Amino acid sequence: MSLSVKTPRNGQRRQRRASSARHAGSPVASALDTQRLLEDNRRLGDSGGVSENNRHAGFRAAFRDEETGRVALPRFRDGTPAPMHLLDGLPDDWVLQRDAAGRITALKPSIIAGFLRDGDFYTREEAAEATGDSSR
Q1: Low-confidence residues of the chain, pLDDT below 70?
Q2: Domain residue extents for the chain
């Protein structure tokens, strides 16, 4: 399931977000997989760039396709929304690889992990900054 994300009042903010995802430690050149999600969690540690540290500020785990701008929420296998970044439940056209059980193991390189708040997508780094911890 993908979402329609409202256009921010400030168009420049959307532009900044798209470019920051490519240059702020989230390389778009390699496939997004569980290992990369774990590495991002370690890198961002106790910052607001991790789901458990930004829920209080209204952030929800989400993914965005940098090519199309399409945003989708992660879901458990039964379809219920997941409170953290999981690869399951994302659009089939984003999937590069599945395991023998059919679980998603890699997404195309243009997919980035981030968060939704009030209809706006934030990269992990932007969420950390918005919650007052941009030190990572």
Answers
A1: 1-29, 133-136
A2: 2-130
